[in-house]
Structure formats: structure tokens, C-alpha cells
Automatic annotation (TrEMBL), chains A, B:
Protein name listed in UniProt: ArsR family transcriptional regulator
Domain HTH arsR-type: 1-92
PROSITE patterns: HTH_ARSR_2
Entry's Gene Ontology molecular function annotations: DNA-binding transcription factor activity
SMART domains associated with the record: HTH_ARSR
CDD domains referenced in this protein's UniProt entry, alphabetically: HTH_ARSR
Highest taxon in the source lineage: Bacteria
InterPro entries: ArsR-like_HTH (IPR011991), HTH_ArsR_DNA-bd_dom (IPR001845), WH-like_DNA-bd_sf (IPR036388), WH_DNA-bd_sf (IPR036390)
PANTHER family: SLL0088 PROTEIN, TRANSCRIPTIONAL REGULATORY PROTEIN
Organism encoding this protein: Saccharothrix carnea
Length: 112, 112
DNA sequence: CAGTTAGATAACCGAGTGGTTAGGTACCCA
DNA sequence: TGGGTACCTAACCACTCGGTTATCTAACTG
């Protein structure tokens, strides 16, 4: 996998378990144990997923006695939407109409 | 890699070469050769990237004599932004203010 | 202290990735 | 018909990924 920030973020999101973890964290911080509950997989597996999310900057991990509470950090998701927004005109009808309008304007300019 | 649609899309986007290909296709259809130009890699490597993009539904490939023109299909990107929008309140200040407002309303309700 | 709980690390495995080179297919053109 | 161009497939390589079990550390609790 490439190691530029956007690629790291996309790669981290390319797994339903990790997206479910983020969805859970959207409701508030949680311990590793709590995050593991919904999944039929071992602790170390969840640990690995969390490390991927941490490296992508999507979560931060604190410390409270023997617990390591995870909290969501959605900043990288903003970059994701900003990137995808560059393609909005290809699916958004209103943007498509605006594109067509600008195209007509440009053609009028060219007529001069 | 998981094979659900969203994971497939995210995985396809987790590579700068593939994102550059999509950016190029945003300016119009292109042949495999044209898409290869900017990259210092062999033809088969580009072919593989295109196959990943095709499996993710991000491009479609036509046929014109010995050329296989690629065109962009951004529909999966809409799903991406829709998913990320579920987290918008964690980075968007205006949404954060709305959240706080709703929270205060809820507290007032609880006082009754 | 011993025992339990939360969690990380290490070593391993099968499958997939991203690249290569070599060779094959399909089409156009002289 | 023969040659060049566009593209794909096959086989291979080093590496990563997502999972496992076994083992370790760190902290609380009796």
C-alpha cells in the first residue's frame, strides 16, 4: 500500500470491521474490549484493526489504568470528502446542470 | 480484502496511481496507452490498476478497433461521500454548533 | 502475595497486491 | 501477407493483510 496520507486513509476504510468500529466510536469513546464485543474475532485481530486506524489518524488512544480508551478523530474523513467532491459533477444532477450552463457561456464567449 | 461494494471502492481508491487515473478520466475518455503515459511503469501494471477500477465500478471499458477506451463512472464515489457524511458533524463547525444546540434543547426537555 | 483482567506483541499462515518479463491476441495498414 | 500497434494473460517475485494461537506486560483486587 502507498504511504501518502490519502491512500492510508482509504486503505483503513476498506474494511467493514474498521468502518463499524468508527461508527461505534461516533457514539463516544470506548475501550478495546467494548469495541471487540460485536465481532466474532480474537482480541489481537481487533488490536491490529485499531493500529491501522491509529496510523491513519482516524482514532487516538488514551490511557486509563489497564484500559486504553479509543476516541474518534474524523479529520482525515474531511480530506476524503474533499477529494471525492472533485468528482461531484459526475453524479450530482444540479452540478451537471451548472456544468452545462458554464459550457454554454463558454461557447458564447468563443463566438465573439 | 472484503468484497462488499464500499470496501471494494475504498480499496480501489487507496492507490495514488489509480486516483490519478480517475482524475485524468474526469477530463474525458482515454485509451490505456494515454493513461499509461504519466507513469513510469509497464503496460501490464496499468492494466491491473484498470481492472481494479473496473471491478469497483469506477470505470467502464469500451471497444474501438484495437483501442479499449476507458470512461469514468463516479457513482460509487457518491456512496463514499454519503458514508463519510455520516461523520460530518465531527469535523464541520456549523454541524458541531447545530449538535450543541440540539443537545441544549434536549436538556431543556429533560428538565420538565 | 496470588489471581484476574485489559491489552499488546510475536510468530505464523493463506490469500491478495503491485510490480516485473515473456508471450499471445486482435486489429490496422502497406 | 507481413509488420507494427494496442492490449491482455500467464507466471513469477517480494511484500502486505487479515486472521490465528501463544506468550508477555501492566494494572487492579482479594
Amino acid at each position: 500500500m502507498a504511504d501518502d496520507p490519502l491512500s492510508t486513509t482509504f486503505a483503513a476504510l476498506a474494511d467493514p470491521t474498521r468502518r463499524a468500529i468508527l461508527a461505534r466510536l461516533a457514539e463516544g469513546a470506548a475501550t478495546v474490549k467494548e469495541l471487540s464485543e460485536p465481532f466474532a474475532m480474537s482480541g489481537p485481530a481487533v488490536s491490529k484493526h485499531l493500529r491501522v486506524l491509529e496510523r491513519a489518524g482516524l482514532i487516538t488512544r488514551g490511557r486509563d489504568a489497564q484500559w486504553r480508551p479509543c476516541t474518534l478523530d474524523a479529520t482525515p474523513l474531511r480530506e476524503v470528502t474533499e477529494w471525492a467532491d472533485g468528482f461531484r459533477r459526475f453524479w450530482d444532477d444540479s452540478h451537471r446542470r451548472l456544468d452545462a450552463y458554464l459550457e454554454r457561456m463558454k461557447e458564447q464567449e468563443d463566438d465573439h
